[in-house]
Design brief:
mainly beta; AttH-like fold; 13-stranded antiparallel β-sheet; nine-stranded antiparallel β-sheet; 1 helix; 60% strand
Length: 326
């Protein structure tokens, strides 16, 4: 397992081929270029999850070309309050480049995720029964992964993720207000020309270890796994610095069954205990999506490419199972 290298200056070279690899750092103004077909098939989104032991706030803005999607939810223990909507033609929905703003706007509804000059993110949510104003600090070095998401088919994709960031602000759900002083957050920006059928599992979490040390992690299978096993989007953040984790296998089942996430070499050995889930199915005949995002806690062991090993006990986060035909 090789560790993360320094990022290139651009996502693609002069011929349009992706600079494949997993990198510690950002590529300025990351966004895919390409011809008309690539632009029509390109999907992009930004997601943010904010975690505290007693609370999860998650929001996303997505543009899949023919459709825009947005959601926001708050989980208080197993209780879930959510609002979501779809916009034909992605009207009112914009996902900018990796260092740009992502906004979904509809009558009486707003989700805005806007990067700051300091490398953080401002989160503004104003939807029925959920209102939030948060600042997520840019105090962790991001992970950037550029890959062929079709495993040899030549379709480029890029993701920029950060985990373990400090989040501060206020959240109001159904009239109940929370002040967040030391919550932890994970951020995901992704853009890719995905295959017609795409299936993935994903998990991310953030919190504090037993001694108070900040931690974040990202684990996935199905999208940015290099066909030759050279890299993936799996990483561990300790003290804001990411390092590579090996490829993993997800063993999952419907609620309330725990998930298992593990690697062949034992460097990743986690159990995810779900408390609840957000799910959404879309069936538009020629396109469809089956989406499950569960919120809960992670326990177990992680050991990264630098040999850093940690034990997790009840670290909050989310796990996702998604199958799309698009």
């Amino acid at each position: 397992m090789e560790d993360l290298s320094a990022p290139p200056a651009t996502i693609q070279d002069a011929r349009g081929s992706p600079h494949e690899g997993a990198y510690a750092g950002t590529i300025p103004h990351a966004a895919l270029d390409g011809g008309l077909v690539a632009r029509l098939r390109k999907k992009s989104w930004r997601f943010v999850g904010v975690f505290r032991d007693d609370l999860v706030l998650a929001a996303a803005v997505a543009d899949v070309g023919y459709l825009g999607l947005a959601f926001a939810y708050v989980a208080e223990g197993p209780r879930l309050v959510e609002r979501a909507w779809k916009a034909p033609g992605a009207v009112g929905v914009r996902v900018g480049p990796s260092d740009g703003a992502s906004v979904a706007l509809a009558p009486g509804r707003l989700v805005a995720l806007s990067p700051t000059r300091a490398g953080g993110l401002t989160v503004s949510i104003d939807v029925p029964e959920i209102h939030a104003a948060l600042d997520i600090e840019g105090d962790a070095l991001p992970l950037t992964v550029v890959s062929d998401v079709s495993q040899g088919g030549g379709l480029p994709g890029v993701t920029v993720k950060s985990a373990g960031l400090v989040a501060r602000g206020t959240v109001t759900v159904e009239g109940r207000s929370y002040t967040l002083d030391d919550a932890r957050a994970c951020v995901d920006w992704t853009e890719a020309v995905f295959p017609r059928r795409t299936v993935w599992c994903w998990a991310t979490g953030a919190g504090l270890l037993a001694g108070g040390r900040p931690i974040g992690f990202n684990l996935a299978r199905g999208v940015h796994d290099d066909a030759r096993g050279r890299f993936s989007e799996n990483a561990l953040w300790l003290d804001g610095v990411p390092s590579a984790l090996p490829g993993v296998v997800f063993s999952h089942a419907p609620l309330p069954t725990p998930w298992s996430i593990h690697s062949e070499d034992g460097a990743v050995d986690l159990v995810f205990e779900p408390r609840g889930e957000r799910h959404e199915d879309v069936n538009l005949f020629v396109v469809s999506s089956r989406f499950r995002q569960l919120f809960g806690t992670f326990s177990g062991r992680l050991r990264d490419a630098r040999g850093r090993e940690v034990r997790l006990e009840g670290v909050p986060g989310v796990a996702e199972d998604h199958e799309a035909v698009w």
